[in-house]
């Protein structure tokens, strides 16, 4: 009777203090040896986030059963005590207790949250040893862990062997691909729909994010129609994701339509729309929206200022950007961090004001990171400042010695300056350290299919037609005054060879494919994983004029809208 009374009292507790009173009564009346009572005490301590009290109780318990271990591990997992979570799990194994499908998911989620792939593999071995791999909850949690740790192949292998998959598991797998292979993410979404699963709002947000990463406009429109048809409300999370999706698919007007349809907007929604204008070089619209936000009594945060400064940088609004940067702390109590400083360095760098960028870096009080030095190095590449480029590169290589992109960027600067011995030196360093350069890819969506091109690519079934079209277009452009800019071929070869290399850049191949595959009047949309080169930028402008086609290019930095021989970036990118 005393034990039952203690358990009933625990359900009335509203504060840790009350649980401690019940705990004291348990000790006084000698019911501590009742495992049901002790486990309930442990559970309520964990529920009230009193992890130290729970841990002390756990250590004092004379008996433990699987529930005891599970509650304690769950408490450590939920409340961030990852070291104790791992240690307690090791105790389970040492005491010979068989872990179950309640305990294991907690430990696996801890590995997921900490991106601790090595520990995750060890837990996976334990799962195999105890024959629990076919347990739905355990296997689904392992899939989630591998996906979040970006080990997508292992996640997919487990996903494929699962005997039954629920909506959550599908969503986890789709989300995992969205982070590293957006195309496969959308393929998997289609398969999920074919198998009869009805996506919920969480799944739709995941798919929306995949569309954003891939820039897949057709799929974006399908997703939008599905959301409208099934009555999903455009809350802050879904609405903001859709703003980002349309912006990254190249249609800032549709992003604004979603923004205007949202019944509720928070600072993140406003910041996303400001960022959308920034991607597309619409600096004035970004500034106008910022003032609308202030008039709506929404105060900006650090994300808002990153979006605003980015927009100013990519639109050449130098004085506006500096004014916003200087007002952050003084007017809005938002302390600038490294992202804001990086935007200002980029702002100065794009305008060629490299001395001011360097001075800002020297005087700033926040810790410098690789993005800051990359922004400066990129500006040095544009404006040919070799001395400052070497300083930025050395700092960058200290921070990221294993990032091949840093070596390639500095190598390209030396190549532009004609210092081929330095180029060879850096390429040797890449080879010696066994670093792999990120290959340049361009994607284009045609008839609901996404096609991928690399430089000199001949893998497409219509390859001969693509090359014939490309050479025909180049001849027309040359008659209109196009001269290939061989400065952008960063190899020490003859000019004729340089021209041939320029002619087969991946974005030119994708545009040629678009010319033969996309009806006149529809824009040609392509996406790149790297920054568009200057020659391809000129090529795209002239194609838009000579061939009378609208071309939208999304590169690693921003969007370029080519129409009638001009680009939305104003040649400022």
UniProtKB/TrEMBL annotation:
Keyword Ligase: no
Entry-linked InterPro entries: DYW_dom (IPR032867), E2_motif (IPR046849), E_motif (IPR046848), PPR_At4g14850-like_plant (IPR046960), PPR_rpt (IPR002885), TPR-like_helical_dom_sf (IPR011990)
Domain DYW: 481-573
Signal peptide start and end residues: none
UniProt GO molecular function: RNA binding; zinc ion binding
Keyword annotations: Repeat
Single biological process term from Gene Ontology: RNA modification
Highest taxon of the lineage: Eukaryota
Pfam families named in the record: DYW_deaminase (PF14432), E_motif (PF20431), Eplus_motif (PF20430), PPR (PF01535), PPR_2 (PF13041)
UniProt repeat feature PPR, residue ranges: 65-99, 166-199, 235-265, 266-300
Similarity field: Belongs to the PPR family. PCMP-H subfamily.
Protein name: Pentatricopeptide repeat-containing protein At1g08070, chloroplastic-like
Origin species: Cicer arietinum (Chickpea)
